[in-house]
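Subject: sequence -> structure tokens, single chain

Hey, anyone have a minute? Need the predicted structure for the following. Not urgent.
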Amino acid sequence: MTLNGKERLNAASQRFSEAEAQYLAENFIGRIATVSPSGQPHVVPVGYEFDGRSISFSGRSLTKSLKYRNMMANRRVAFVVDDIVSTSPWKVRGVEVRGDAEPVLSEQGLTTIRIIPFNIRSWGLGA
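Reply:
Had a minute. Here:
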């Protein structure tokens, strides 16, 4: 059975733990990783929004960007938000989301990318 975007989003909506959701809601810059049709990886920072179920981002000239072209050729992406809490002792935390990138066109004609998660990993979010 194949799920459409809304069904996949609804299925993924319970996947984020409370700590992961809080961490993503408190931050606003992450890194999106895509792969070109020839297999070349590409990672760039993007500002994002988190609605509790998925991650979304847009940007000036998004549809002309390499990341967009890569996502349209291969919808599988990885998205990471992380930070360093302390260097002594060393303490890092973050969330990695692997999922499918889905373009969403607004009524105003702006394209936004929504990442529908299928795998979520996190580290260092506990007390």
